[in-house]
Amino acid sequence: MTVFKNPWFLTAATLFWINQLLEKVFVVFIPFVHAYLDDLMAMPVVLGITLQVYRWIHPAKSRFTFTWTQVLIAVLYFSFLFEWLLPKYSNLYTSDYWDILAYAIGAIFFYYLINVPSQKKPSHENP
């Protein structure tokens, strides 16, 4: 199964895009959702898309998965970028340490539900 067909990835991406549609097009802001949903869905969506790209180009194809260390580095990178560096230089960003928790929860969600190897054998291995 490709990442793009994984129901957990589709749920995360759909929630993210619905929230963006509500905020950007309909100008509807639900306070708690506005503050944390995008941060919660960031790791499943970004790492899910990245995982799919790796599966297209890596020799292991659909069996390729990210290690826990790689996922942790993504959380640290997002935390550094969006919660420390960008708020320092732009008023468009606000540092909120609860966002780091949201990134971590999203990363755990990604690691256990989306970052799974496909059970299907590559076509060259089928009898």
UniProtKB/TrEMBL annotation:
This protein's record includes keyword Transmembrane helix: yes
TM ranges: 12-34, 40-57, 64-85, 97-114
UniProt KW keywords: Membrane, Transmembrane, Transmembrane helix
Domain of life of the native organism: Bacteria
Protein name: Magnesium citrate secondary transporter
Annotated source species: Indibacter alkaliphilus (strain CCUG 57479 / KCTC 22604 / LW1)
